[in-house]
Design a protein that fits this description.
By secondary structure, the protein is mostly helical. The chain has helices at about 1-10, 20-150, 160-185. It is about 90% helix and about 0% strand. It is rod-shaped.
């Protein structure tokens, strides 16, 4: 209405500048709205913003703590892995050394057993040779006694006489055999 009064007066008014009473009412309304915002809305907005900021900062701190903990766990894992690799290498080395020792021990045991078998074989051969020599001596002695009894024409049944005759005959045989071997070796 005030605008109509001014239009009637015929003065030309600048459209960018509002009339005085409207400016006063607008400023009062703005002050009331600003006061309500200042007392009610701004504190609530600030409270929400602070809570949000705390949540963000807390989340970042938690993320940093989690990162530090993850780094610590990773370092522990790497240390355990390195220790496990070292232990595996040590066990592998020990197994290799034990394998070499076992192989050497088995070779030594095999060598010892072979030597025992060879020695037992030589002993058995020697025993068999002595037994065969003794049996041969007895057989040859018996044959020699029988032959000598037939040639001499008297009985050589006396055991002492028979032993002396057999021993003398066998000694002569051995001497002639060794002379023959020496002559064959000299050629």
């Amino acid at each position: 209405m005030y605008a109509l009064v001014e239009l009637a007066s015929g003065e030309e008014q600048n459209p960018l500048i509002p009339p005085g009473p409207e400016l006063l009412v607008g400023t009062i309304a703005f002050a009331i709205v600003f006061f309500v915002f200042w007392k009610k809305l701004i504190p609530n907005i600030n409270k929400v913003l602070e809570e949000r900021q705390k949540a963000i900062v807390g989340g970042m701190e938690e993320a940093d703590a989690a990162k530090v903990e993850a780094q610590s766990v990773l370092e522990q894992y790497k240390a355990q892995l390195a220790e496990a690799r070292h232990e595996a290498a040590r066990l592998r080395q020990e197994a290799t050394e034990q394998g070499v020792a076992i192989v050497a021990e088995m070779k030594a045991e095999g060598q010892r057993q072979r030597e025992e078998i060879v020695a037992a074989g030589h002993a058995q051969i020697e025993a068999d040779r002595k037994a065969a020599s003794s049996a041969l001596r007895q057989d040859v002695g018996k044959l020699a006694t029988d032959l000598a009894s037939k040639l001499v024409g008297e009985s050589l049944e006396d055991h002492a006489r028979q032993s002396r005759t057999i021993d003398r005959f066998l000694d002569e045989l051995e001497a002639s055999a060794s002379n023959t071997e020496k002559a064959g070796a000299a050629r």
